[in-house]
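Re: that backbone. Tokens:
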């Protein structure tokens, strides 16, 4: 039961990652705006890191049943720990860091980064099944 729930949560996370890749590919301006918005208010902050931590915990729970258990467990703990860390620092730091990157990443790079992002979404789904 928990394994199945964890599977559904991780697959939802993989689908979200694939959607982000498609936005980067089709609408790089929108992807840049989204990146610059990270940490801009509590709604964005919690909306980014609470689901991210939940997916990370689901990865840890699903790891024993996965094709690459150690990889999934390490990745899951990384998501949980980094989400907690980002939530612990002042939100303005997170937003300044996001804006700093958004201003420096060329729009063409968003399209290029879409391909490995989509590949990671597919790989995450594959190793989780």
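Recovered sequence:
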């Amino acid at each position: 039961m928990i394994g199945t729930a964890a599977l559904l949560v991780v697959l939802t996370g993989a689908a979200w990652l694939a959607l982000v890749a498609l936005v980067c590919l089709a609408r790089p301006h929108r992807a840049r705006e989204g990146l610059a918005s990270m940490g801009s208010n509590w709604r964005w902050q919690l909306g980014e890191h609470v689901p991210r931590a939940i997916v990370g915990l689901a990865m840890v729970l699903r790891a024993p049943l996965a094709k690459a258990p150690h990889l999934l467990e390490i990745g899951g703990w990384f998501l949980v720990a980094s989400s907690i860390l980002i939530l612990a620092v002042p939100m303005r730091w997170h937003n300044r860091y996001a804006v700093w990157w958004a201003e420096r990443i060329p729009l063409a790079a968003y399209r290029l980064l879409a391909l490995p992002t989509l590949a990671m979404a597919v790989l995450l789904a594959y190793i989780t099944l």
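Residues 18 and 118 are 5 Å apart (CA to CA). The first helix runs from residue 2 to 26.
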